[in-house]
Records
---
Amino acid sequence: MFLLNASEVEVSTFLLIGIPGLERAHIWVSIPICLMYLMAILGNCTILFVIRTETSLHEPMYYFLSMLALSDLGLSFSSLPTMLRIFLFNIMGISADACIAQEFFIHGFTDMESSVLLIMSFDRFVAIRSPLRYSSILTSSRVVQIGLAFAIKSILLVLPLPFTLKRLRYCNKHLLSHSYCLHQDVMKLACSDNTVNFYYGLFVALCMMSDSVFIAISYVFILKTVLGIASHGERLKALNTCVSHICAVLIFYVPIITLATMHRFAKHKSPLAMILIADAFLLVPPLMNPIVYCVKTRQIRVKVLEKLCLKSK
């Protein structure tokens, strides 16, 4: 830190927070958090390994599932360092540069996961609408092109965020609101004009939320197609192929929408509730997505059990 004038002090280190009121119990809180991270990493690595080694799973749906697993791993590894530092070692400080780097990766992988969920909704629509042409429409090369296009889109979308934060001046205030760094959180600590950050951050948020709108539109078309199927059994079979994806969408978007609603409309916000929901946003999707797809997708479940030298009954 160095003095700018009599009343301002340049801040070079930010302070993250754990769970308010439970500071003395952080070491015990770290146990379930570490287990959740471990299960998330193992689960997503297992999904990637099974899809990579089983040729019967080399289909568009499972390629997109691989992209979802990669996004979940990126999200886990982005938040892992600060979460462990806080809850295991009670180290709250983080340098400004490290904080800005972390927010880039968190926002990047968040947008990437949102994009993958959108692609998967399109995949389900094509599979139900044109099952006979499914493989010819979504070829392996086309799947790779779509994945790369959306990955590049996510990187380019969040790339300006660290540069806009870097140009700001931080003084006096240095306490963040979460256990990890987010653009809107860091931006509020600036003592210089952050108008550009506010509007570009809003633009990024709207782009991400537009994915949820397009997902909803996709399911309107899916439902319309399913209702046009004559056989009741075939309708249920078609809808059942969407259950895993619907669960993944809810797991991802419910914490985001809840947090945004609380920020916007709650008059008396509970800091504890805000922090728990924010932590759930990064912890729950990477943990639950492999479990949901293993439970609800028979092909994945069978291959995972085979890899574990078990027989599916």
---
Amino acid sequence: MAVSIEDTRVPDALPNLEVLVGTYEEFNLGFRLTKNPEGGLSFVPSFTNHSHCGSIRSVATCKQFLASGSTDESIRLFNLKTRSEYGFLQQHNGTITCLDFFQQSFLFSGSDDGNVCVWNTRTWNCEKTLKAHEGGVTAISIHPSGKLALTVGKDRAMKTWNLIKGRTAYVTNIKAVADSVKWSPEGTVWAVSINNVVNIYEVKSAGIKHTIDFKTRVNFVLFLNEDTLLIGGEGPNIVTHSISQRKLLSQFKAHERRVKAAAITKLNTLEEPHLVTVSNDGFIKLWQILDINEEPVLVTQVDSTCRITCLSLWTEKNSNPSMQKDVKPLTIQSHNSSGVSVELSSPDKNDPLKLKSLLKRKIGNKAVIVKTTSGPFIAEPIKIRDDKRPRLTFTE
């Protein structure tokens, strides 16, 4: 059983930590971590967006943008500094299954169409389309150096990509459809999950170093460091394993239902690492990891009231808008080399009415423009989309 919230220590200075989740109900939701009047920490809603017309399968963040991929075959972009919809990307002909930013330069997207697209975050042109896996791409992970990438797909293969040359370096037959792939922080090992099994590979030998049987289907694998990883899945528990010791270090009950995703962060450089977990029971929880051999401490939690499918964290290191360097948004409708249109808007953050008019959807009467240190954003109550509403259709 996890330690009580009352036993936690609140850091003196908090970053602008925001938890961003995608949901089965087609919403992108944001929750910001703040200090409450009692001196503790709490999650407060920061934004709600309903641009997709299908359940959201993946979200990813960089310094300025949130990208979300959905079953509607599109990638939606949101400017987190100006709190506005930035545009959308259409290149795939299938569900967007995975998204991954490399630093601030490129966004990698995988889809059920079997392709991996590489997007330049300055122009949002599709710089390269990699023919990755027959039947669909299930996961992608970029090496910390940015020179390599790993993909797994429904063709029961794991591919290593040379990103400098833009082509396949190795193809490994793993004899099963992998659900996820993840590089370690330093890129010396990586993990591949297949149903209830996690295989740890090392770069030195390019072979399996250790195998972990999780007993239930694995939903995520997360490296705490080069030797320690966290695993969560269809059950309510999260386990901590040591690769070198080849043993279970600890486990704890994180949620009442299955754990969908998790992420590691530090509230400041002197703090112990914190773990954010989400579940399809709707809860978002923040845990403090004091010792890898012990259960973490529950710091705070919030009920999103939605079925959460994916998670990403965003930290704005400088909360002063006057000190932030913002990428200048485009005001034109551009076309990349593939002939695919990319619609980008340029809202004026000092004019809420203009911001409201630029959104490509109707806003209810209960919606309000809220001013924050990050600029104005639209806050509106969650409303389930009418099934009779016409869906988007895509034509070649």
